[in-house]
Amino acid sequence: MEFVQTIQETKNIIKEWEKSGFTIGLVPTMGFLHEGHESLIKKAASENDKVVVSIFVNPIQFGPTEDLDTYPRNLDRDKKVCENAGTNLIFNPAPEEMYFDNAVTSVTVGELTNGLCGSKRPIHFQGVCTVVSKLFNIVTPDKAYFGEKDAQQLAVIKRMVRDLNFDIDIIGCPIVREEDGLAKSSRNTYLSDSERKAALVLNESLKLAKKALENGEVHASKLTHVISEKINSEPLAKIDYIEIVDSIDLKPVCKISSSILVAIAVYIGKTRLIDNFTWNTNDNK
Amino acid sequence: MEFVQTIQETKNIIKEWEKSGFTIGLVPTMGFLHEGHESLIKKAASENDKVVVSIFVNPIQFGPTEDLDTYPRNLDRDKKVCENAGTNLIFNPAPEEMYFDNAVTSVTVGELTNGLCGSKRPIHFQGVCTVVSKLFNIVTPDKAYFGEKDAQQLAVIKRMVRDLNFDIDIIGCPIVREEDGLAKSSRNTYLSDSERKAALVLNESLKLAKKALENGEVHASKLTHVISEKINSEPLAKIDYIEIVDSIDLKPVCKISSSILVAIAVYIGKTRLIDNFTWNTNDNK
Questions:
Q1: In which pathway does it act (chains A, B) (predicted)?
Q2: Do B105 and B19 fall into the same domain?
């Protein structure tokens, strides 16, 4: 496994691989890898000749009051996870390698970034789309892998790839959960013991909503109510948003008649966690 | 020479070329080709195995009051110009081929697009950067060719390519002029006979500024005065802007001490024309 910190060296290795006709899978990450990332890397390894994992805590996708400085890091462990999961190259640039002081170019995906996390984190998706565009141009992968936990990110990246004609297949991979149901996240490490228990309320509230759908509920407002009631029953939890949206264009839906995304963001103490599921009206048939 | 109207067919041909190891030069145009474009195509043909010319009047770079509907077109003549200059593939998509109805992704280059044409045409450069990004992803050229007449566009594209890590060399090519000095432009066709004569004032005013620089002038305000006095002497001409800026970051300069761009936009009747020259302080040594 190669460990590379410069753009040029990465490009050089990629060019050699392309000359040999190898297909390339990219897994963009911010490091502090968990089993969710691992599942992306393994899937990439099963579908491509070569796998690149980028590990880069991207400063421009964090707002001024967010957790850029405290975002958890453990490069030594990340290297082991990558190696074991079948990575061929880790790309781990410093921020100054990725951004010139006078960098002024950004990629934005309108509309899809207005709601959900986009409305709470106004610069977030511009930062994500810009860095992902850069990674795509540096690594030129055939396929790129993103977790379905960041459902809005996945929808936004898919739209960006379509709109800008990137010749890359975007592969979404299922949420990986702890045994008790909490979605894996690098930010789970922020939680105290009592918060860790309280965090179960995210998945549990979604399970209630799913049950309601299975029982034939078609009103988004009822689903929202089911979820909010459950979350509000947990004293350490504070709702950031509960949204029922079309799974493709992320526009809010009132009556469930197509494929929907049920997405929530909840503060557990000071830690903001997200979770979601998608539901197709055919799922009940 | 291939003439292709779909993205997929273009990609297929490009992939075959890449398999054969051919280098590819791209000349993005809006058609109605003149000797300026021809010089770009010939340069591309001399430096690459294959040359792609895109002919696409890009709707998203025109403001609502601009000349999208009347922009001159002559595809038959364009094909001949392309063939004679050494083009291998013309990519001529319809607007619906390039933009889905629900396209929402855009590429912006901040700061560099605040002044000059950017301040007069607020959505222009976002439209340019977005379509050029798309063309880069579709054609994946090794080199792309742009005229120095659109000096701000050239600086903006160079910055975009650097910031987003496109692996493409951007080649600027000198302004091609009519015998009497008017910069070649597809929009020159809008001019009446008297306007055509009046339009000479653009180049003539720039020549006066250049002479002042050669004579040691270092104050931007003096250059602006020389240019505006000349343009104002022509009754059919109306100044849109006169700007003296750093040639790389396009920030206004007061005292000339580096490489500068002297750029003007002038209405001749209803037709807006641009012209410019770059000047390096070393040019006098």
A1: Cofactor biosynthesis; (R)-pantothenate biosynthesis; (R)-pantothenate from (R)-pantoate and beta-alanine: step 1/1
A2: yes
- Look at chain A and count its residues: 285
Q: Are residues B148 and B56 in the same domain?
A: yes
Using the 3D structure, point to which of B147, B173, B199 is the last residue of a domain.
Answer: B173
Measuring CA to CA, which residue among A3, A4, A76, A86 is closest to residue A39? A86
A133 touches chain B (CB under 8 A): yes
Please identify, among A112, A143, A173, the residue that sits at the C-terminal boundary of a domain. Answer: A173
The Cα A24–Cα A18 span in angstroms is: 8
Whether the CB of A283 is below 8 Å from some CB of chain B: the reply is no
Nearest-5° angle of CA A26, CA A27, CA A31?
140
Are A107 and B107 an interchain contact pair (Cβ–Cβ within 8 Å)?
yes
What is the number of domains present in chain A?
2
Residue B179 lies in a domain: no
Active site residues of B: 37
Query: pTM to 2 decimals?
Result: 0.95
Domain of residue A34, residue span: 2-173
Whether A283 maps to a domain, the answer reads no
At B47, list the tokens: 């430096």
DSSP secondary structure letter of residue A258: S
